[in-house]
Structure formats: C-alpha cells, structure tokens
Amino acid sequence: MTQTGDAARHDAVLIVVSSLGESSRRTFFESVSKHYPIWLFVGGAGRPAEPSWELPFIVGHTSLDTLDAGAMIAAAAELSRQRPIAGIVSYDEARIHATATVATALGLPTSPPEAIARCRDKHLTREALARAQVPQARSVAVTSLAEAVREANQIGYPVVVKPRHLAASFGVARADDDAQLAAAYQAARTTTLPEAPEYYEAGVLVEEYLDGAEYSVESVCFDGRVEPVAVTRKRTGYSPNFEEVEHLVDGASPLLRDDGLREVVIGAHRAVGFDTGVSHVEVKIGRRGPRIVEINARLAGDLIPYLGHVAGGPDLELAAAAVACGDAPDLGRGTPRVAAIRYYYPESDVTVAAVRIDETLLPPGVVRAAPLADPGQRVLLPPRGSAWESRLAQVVVVRDTEAMCTAALDAAAKAVVVTPDHP
User: Fold this and answer.
1) How many Å apart are CA 355 and CA 394, to the nearest integer?
2) pLDDT band at residue 5, thresholds of 50, 70 and 90?
3) In 88, 245, 359, 368, which residue has its Cα 20 to 30 A from 287's Cα atom?
4) pLDDT of residue 3
5) CA triplet 114, 269, 285: central angle to 5 degrees?
C-alpha cells in the first residue's frame, strides 16, 4: 500500500487537531497535504480561532474547542455528512488524549486513550515502566516540600524535579542540595500552561538524575510493530534548567542498530500500551545503558521529525498521517547525512523591535532559518522565560559530518540580526 493510500483516492479527509506555530509545524502541512486532504480542527476553550498560514495546505476547517472531545466527536459527525473521514491526528500535547478519544469513538486507527493518558501523566508512565521492568529513573510523586526533601535524600543528590503533567521541559530543574530543591519544587508546583489544566495533589515528581548523554528516539508504531527510525541527540543549557537549545540527527548513527536501545524503547511502548502512531521517547545513555526519561505519544517538536527526514530517514510527519488513516507508512531510507537545528538566545533579557535573518551571512548547508521573536516581544532568558519566550531565531543545517554542522551553526549566529527596542 502506498503512502497516499485509500484516503487520497477516495477524497477522504485527515482531520488534524490544532496546528500550533508555523516555525515548527509548517513542514508537517507541506508534507502531508501532498498525500492527504487535510481538514483542520482549530480553536481552544473560549478561544475562537481561524487558520492563517495553514490555508494553502488545507481543504477546510472547523472552529471549535479542540480540548473538548465531545465537541470534536459532534463536529466530526457533521463533517462526515459532507466528506468521508480517513483518520484523525494531533501532535499537540494538550490535545492528544482528546484526539484519541475521538478516534476511538469514530472507529479510526489510534492507540487507546488510556495509553495516551499513561504518557501524558509522567507518574503513570513511571508506574507502567516499573511493572514491566523497563530501565528508567527512580521517581517519586510528592505532595509537599518536606516530602520532596525526604525523598531526594533517599534517592541521593543530584535529583531532577519536574511537573507531573507538562512537556517540553517546562518547570524541570536539577537540584544538588536541599536549598536548590526548595526552589525547584516551587517552580515545578507553580509552572502551568493555559491549555494543560490538569492538577494532581501529588503533582511534582522527584527523580534520580541520570548520567550520560541525552537522546530522543522517534518511532513509528503500526500493525503490532514498534519501529525506531531516528535517534536525535539533544543539547540542553541554562542549568539547573534543561532548556533544549540544539538537536542533531545523524542518519548513519550506530545507535539505530543498537539492540540494547531498541529493546528498551520497544519495551517502553509495550509497557504503556502505545501501539498506533508516532512517538518521541527521551532516553539517557550512561554507564548503566539506556534508561527512559519520558514517553511522548506524539510527533516531536522543534522540527525534529524534519531533521530525521533531511538526514536520510523516513518522513515521520507523513508516517504519522499514514498510520492515522490505516495506511502502511513508507519507512524507506535515503542517503544518510547529518542535520541539526540550533536556537539562538539573547545575552540578557531584551525587548526586541525586530529580529531578522541576513541571508547574505548564512553559511553553506543552511536549509531553513527563521526569526522567532515578534516585534515588541520581551525575550526572557530561562528560567524566567519558556522556550516560547526565550528564543530569538532558529537555523537548520544539513552537512556530511557533525563537525561541519557545528561550524555552520556557529557561523550562522552572525546572520541573526536583533534590533533592540529602546523606549
């Protein structure tokens, strides 16, 4: 079965729930719209929305509360009277559970909603991995600072403190002693996102700090198979926080053929019950081998799927659409290369009048470059600002070696031109 599958031949639409930002998700629409007619569900609770940059890639849209599974089921039923529906998919962390609920109600391909819930709730993830004896960090959910201090001393410093229900390293910090733990606990307890309203009495996790390098493994799950297809090396900064500042994919990475890593990643999927879709699993590989950091039941952000593709791997974004429509994904590989993305930050907090990319200063190998801060935006360095508030620009390069990528990204910094706003 080809990637285009029955969906395109019969004009059945793929519902995409929420589009998020153009800078990180345009590649999804560029790729998928060539093979599947896209119908966009857009909007939030009490927040009407209309598509903008997505318009060239979609055949229609419905504005509704995309956090409300019941509202989406009703909207899908109405849509089905106009056009057949081949599948439904979302890469928005706040909406993947509601999307799975809709898919289940419509009889469309999906992992069970309860499996998505195990991935969304990091404590449930830990419990499932522990039952299956999948290597991971030791983790305890705590209800108070006093309990956090007690558990941290039991685990042994350093520890990692994180919110139970957020993603993208929001509110995550390392603590080396009781004083740092107090600050980290407060940040984890109070960090919220407008569309991630979950609250847990034991809402903070205190976890063992894992040694080693941090990676993510991108996998495609279908027909009872879990196929790891790309390994991304992460670089973080702004310690004690874990701001993700760079990602690199080597299309010829020996980790793709590492049996130990594959076993741990496949075991993690089976433990949480995620069997249909594309996943983004974070791991650390240290002295004791690979250990799971967390499981994300969706496509990665930060253009990681795009990096994997231009580094010679499968098109993960198209694979996510294919699996959602019940089609066999194309996991063929091309010529391996090395691809990397770097995010550029100010030296200190700044309000910007403008950020632009001087293309005359971009080195060879740059395939994408874009400003991320809007005119008038106050750009705050971590931990005061999240990734959405801290980054000035992004640059993607594709070269033959890691060293060449690093050199190109270093050189590209000169092309990021920032005009401060001096009131």
Assistant:
1) 11
2) very low
3) 245
4) 33
5) 135
pLDDT at 371 over 90: yes
Rounded to whole angstroms, the Cα distance separating 65 from 77 reads 15
The string over 159-185, giving b where at least 16 C-beta atoms fall within 10 Å of a residue's C-beta and e elsewhere, is bbbbbbbbbbbbbbbbbeeeebbeebb
Computed over its alpha carbons, how large is the radius of gyration of the chain?
Answer: 21
Each residue of 276-324: pLDDT tens digit?
A: 999 999 999 999 999 999 999 999 999 999 999 999 999 999 999 999 9
What domains are there in the chain, each with its CATH number? Answer: 5-117 (3.40.50.20), 138-208 (3.30.1490.20), 337-423 (3.90.1170.60)
The one-letter amino acid code at 343 reads Y
Identify the pLDDT of residue 264: 98
Look at the pTM and tell me if it is higher than 0.90.
yes
- Which residues face 44 on adjacent strands? 47
pLDDT of residue 6: 43
| Three-class DSSP labels, the chain | CCCCHHHHHCCCEEEEECCCCHHHHHHHHHHHCCCCCEEEEECECCECCCCCCCHHHCCEEEECCCCCHHHHHHHHHHHHCCCCEEEEECCCHHHHHHHHHHHHHHCCCCCCHHHHHHHHCHHHHHHHHHHCCCCECCEEEECCHHHHHHHHHHHCCCEEEEECCCCCCCCCEEECCHHHHHHHHHHHHHCCECCECCCCCCCEEEEECCCCEEEEEEEEEECCEEEEEEEEEEEEECCCECEEEEEEEECCCHHHHCHHHHHHHHHHHHHHCCCCEEEEEEEEEECCEEEEEEEECCCCCCCHHHHHHHCCCCCHHHHHHHHHCCCCCCCCCCCCCEEEEEEECCCCCEEEEEEEECHHHCCCCEEEEEECCCCCCEECCCCCCCHHHHCCEEEEEEECCHHHHHHHHHHHHHHEEEEECCC
Distance of alpha carbon 22 from alpha carbon 256, whole angstroms: 30
